[in-house]
Amino acid sequence: MEFKILKKSKKSRARLGVLKTSHGEVLTPSLVPVATRATVKTLSADEAKATKSQILISNTFHLHLRPGEKILKSAGGIHKFMNWDRPLMTDSGGFQVFSLGFGRDTKVGKILKIFPGVHGEKDIKKNTQPKFLKITDDGVTFRSPIDGRELFMGPRESIKIQENIGADIIFAFDECTSPLAERAYIVESLKRTHVWAKACLKARKSKNQALFGIIQGSHFKDLREESAGFINSLPFDGFGIGGDLGSSKEMMRDILKWTIPRLNEERPRHLLGIGYLEDMEDVIKSGIDLFDCTVPTHYGRRGIAFVSGGKLNLNQSKYLKDKNPLDKKCICMVCETYTRSYLCHLFRAEEITGMKLLTFHNLYFFNTYVEILREKIKKGIL
RNA sequence: GAGGCAUUGGUGUAGUGGCAGCACAGCAGUUUGUGGCACUGCUAGCACCGGUUCAAAUCCGGUAUGCCUCC
Questions:
Q1: Distance B31 C1' – A54 CA (angstroms)
Q2: Does residue A112 share a domain with residue A41?
Q3: Residue A25 located in a structural domain
Q4: Which residues numbered 307-366 in chain A sit less than 7 A from strand B, measured from CB?
Q5: Check: complex ipTM more than 0.90
Q6: Which residues contact A52 (CB under 8 A, 6 or more apart)?
Q7: Residue A344: which domain range?
């Protein structure tokens, strides 16, 4: 992998770049649509390409469970397996430490929405374990969400699996922490994540795949700074910024402000798991090159379409009589072909085609939005 | 013509004298490195008229409607 910065903004930390891999180039900043189990849910690979998606991210933990990395390896790697010839990343399984652990226990996501009342006694204290998995200095003992069997994954296991899966860019195994964790918990967790980061570099057998290190530290300034400094000092090919991002857009901006200036400018920066439309400009201005997000696909399957004025809930009966396209300004296949009325009908009738069409539109819409932001950096207005 | 049985939100049902419950539909909201169709609210009902009772969807009488049986 090679990363070339084409232009640096004079107004912000934003930069325009190109990421070169053996499966082609990615113009950055770029959205990375999520293909957890080697598919953008509801779309074929050709359809995903037609949404202007340049690169996808799949998931080590989920592919390990099904179909297993042996199948992927014998298929000639994930690109061939899923018929996607553009660049691909795999997330390491670090997010599942959270989503199947404290995230599942507390039903709180990585961004804390309700502030008063949640902090205090319910905080996750140092040395506590989630209900359904066990985190030690060596790695994590998970319970399979499929059949309940135990499985262990640590830095070495994750890297080995990711090498067999064969994406262009892989991530270090980390612990994504909960926004409810107290400082003392984060201090311990960060130590682990840092030890694991080194272990991942050591476990890597070849340099055909780029390996990104992940910065943690929750919403604590000094811990984020420490993590950024430490991960930056290691020979990673790029950076992921992970973990909880506070409880407001301001906190997310602060966390990025503490972190990014400590990272080597030559290496790409990926913000893990963020990407509402309203977040994108801020995130890009703070110096992020790549960001993945389930929102366009997840919301699409639930009937929410993102359009110029905001979002539409196509489950609402008022759209049944609406003969307009989702978005008059959008030139995607869905907007050029189908009415809101028809899409509304599909959702109300629970026809799976509705999910596919909204997934398509949302990805096209998000990718176009980022394209416009790239154009703005080029013109010097962002 | 006579007798029997039934009638509970829009739909399907639970409730044998003590706050009328459930499911679906309808309406609205939530979803940020995806545990695949989720979650959270809200709306809406005892066919009608009388009687018994502290208290009736529930017991009694009548009316309406539907189904069944007999002449």
A1: 25
A2: yes
A3: yes
A4: 313, 315-318, 348, 350, 352, 355
A5: no
A6: A363, A364, A367, A368, A371
A7: 313-354
